[in-house]
Amino acid sequence: MSSVEAGSPPTAPSLRWIRWFVVSLAMAVAVHYLEFKGFFAGAEGLVANSYLTIANATSNESNIRTVAIDDSDFRDYFGMKSPLDPARVVQLVEGVHMAMPKIVGVDILTESSDYHEQHGSPDLRVRLATLGRGMRTVWAAPAEVKERPALAFRAWLLRGEHDESLLAAGTVLGRQAEEIDSRLWGVPVFPLDRDRVVRRLPRRWHDQADRKHKTFAGAVADRYCAHSSSCDSKKRGKSEGDIFISYNSTVSRTPDYFVRNLFDCEWEQAGDGSRRCRAWTWKANSEAMKDLNEKIVLIGGTFGASRDFFDTAEGERTSGLIVNAHAVQAELRGPFISELSPPVTLWLDILVGFSIAYLFGPSSHRHIGRILRPVPRLGQWFRTQADRTGWRVAGSIILAVVVGLLSYPLLGLLDILWFSWIGMVLVGVSWHLVSETRHMRLEH
Amino acid sequence: MVHRPRAGANWTINDEPLKDQRLKHGDRIEAREHGDLELSCRRPNVKDEEVFMYSCRSQTCRARVCEPTGEGMDVRRAGVIRGLMDWWSARVTRQPVLPVIAAVRAGGNAADAVLLQDARGVHWGPALSRVLEGRSCFRLASLPEGPSSRVATFTLDWDRSVDPEGILRVPNVFPGLFALEKGTAGANGSCNRDPDAFAAWVLIVPSADFARVGAEFSEQRKSIAALEQSGLSLGAAANIRHAGLAYLAQSFPPK
Known about the structure:
The complex is a heterodimer. Chain A is α/β, with parallel strands linked by helices. Chain A has helices spanning 13-36, 41-55, 71-76, 86-97, 124-133, 153-159, 216-227, 233-236, 259-262, 287-292, 320-333, 342-359, 362-371, 376-383, 390-414, 421-443; strands spanning 64-69, 103-106, 137-140, 143-145, 151-152, 167-169, 171-172, 175-176, 185-186, 189-190, 200-201, 204-206, 212-214, 243-244, 257-258, 263-269, 275-282, 296-301, 309-312, 315-319, 338-339, 416-417. Helices cover 45% and strands 17% of the residues of chain A. In chain A, the strands form eight sheets. In chain A, strands 9-3-2-18-1-15 form a six-stranded parallel β-sheet, sandwiched between helices. In chain A, helix 4 packs parallel to helix 5, helix 7 (216-227) packs across helix 11 (320-333) and helix 15 runs antiparallel to helix 16 (421-443). The longest helix of chain A has 25 residues, at 390-414. The radius of gyration of chain A is 29 Å and the shape is elongated. The two termini of chain A are 14 Å apart. Chain B is an alpha+beta fold. In chain B, 20% of the residues lie in helices and 35% in strands. Chain B is built from three helices and 19 strands. In chain B, helix 2 (207-229) packs antiparallel against helix 3 (234-248). The radius of gyration of chain B is 22 Å and the shape is elongated.
């Protein structure tokens, strides 16, 4: 294959370079457009998770534990009532605090006004004030997503603009979120990729007044760092954008404990023969109590009616409790991996595509032939390959592998991910096809 | 600014029903049913008027007056070139994917109820006693469920302090017995069925019968509540309530 065809004048080198650049630019923009529209979201997610598995390989054991309300607990301890009874939620949180964990994160929305008003005896507000005094309980806050404008491809590609999450926090413990100490609540918000999978954790979210707020995972991590000397605050502060959540960390993929593991129940028989829990008591001196000591404990629901399940790299129905546990881990230990912005990846893709275009051009054969002169047999064989495409395709693949390997230092040193293999493969294949087609047409 | 609506009653401008009010550039248009709206816009220092055509073909559509883009709303401008520009604009932009809130929902499900249907629409409030304020989508399926069951979806901005009755007209909904489920809003105004949601049974009755049927259902509920206090399980109580509603629904055969 050669761009110098019989019977046609040779193309000037400068025109060839311009043609290669234009084709590379067009291919890179086309691939970025497909990425903008979400065609590669799934594939990129798989690659991101693989990178993060490598990055997390040396992580120490997690100090995060999860306590879940599953379907059995929802039936026995909460009477299958949704919303969850505030008094029982508070009792659960108080019980977990008996194990003296570092921090308790409550991944249950507490919008009911019952949390704030007088409610039976003892007074719920007094109990919540006692919990709040220690500054060791963080509550999840609901939020309403506000209207956001459509994102233009040009702004995304050339200026690196991205979809903004504008939220309005709702009520926490029965009161407006702004009335509560901002260190004690956070919104467990996760942006969805175009394939509707949860992979990222925003470090901050914005309200309509453009004020930044912490997420639930960030608030839990902050509280933990305030009470623990083993927290690397400098590393945590590095990245401001979305970071990837690694689901291959040492956090358990299923809840560590359920409510029934932590509480003894005083059972009573219901009229229809079923049994329900009339009163709970904390299981003192249990193995669970010892395990929860000095840990970060997240409480949440995995019962069916909680509607708290999402598609993640773990699977199609990962509970929000587990997602938040991984998010807290990501906040504390990282890796704080974010993506390179589109303007940078565009030019990197053009560079790689340009390199592949060079391989498929005539000059590459001459230049590589010169390099191989010291190896006579190889050089002689290579001289016979001027019009062949096999070595060009092999060279493109080797280039792709080299770029992939070079990406790992970017990941390890600069905490950024760069995906160019899509652009490279498409540029190479398309260029090859275009060139082959021209070659065949001229032969005929 | 002039408008020629072929829009339905569920179109609003800045949350007010669409009438002959004077509109301003940037006013918020919201449609909760199919329809079209044509607006003539004149900008300052521009000689000619621009005609904007808004078309809603899904459950919920939003746009702004005299702006060429919308959420779920098809917006075109009159004229070939303008139309092409709008087509191109749709290709080179993307609507944001709504983020998720990963926490145990306290929002609750719809409740069994008898609902009034009058000239203004269906009064959904009694079925939303456990649903917290906010925008929610619902799936309404005629009972008994089967191949001939009619399904409608609608979106409601529920705020009991503003409209405790929760009045909303849903097209092609007639008196009868339905299963009502709270769903998850999807793209283009769709309402995705939530596999974990509990369906409530609602009996929609016309105003002439509401007082009578409502009173009978109230009596049933008192009896069921007394049984619950003496130990009846939630599931059994729900079954009895559904049986009571099915009995009351005999007067309102499906259309």
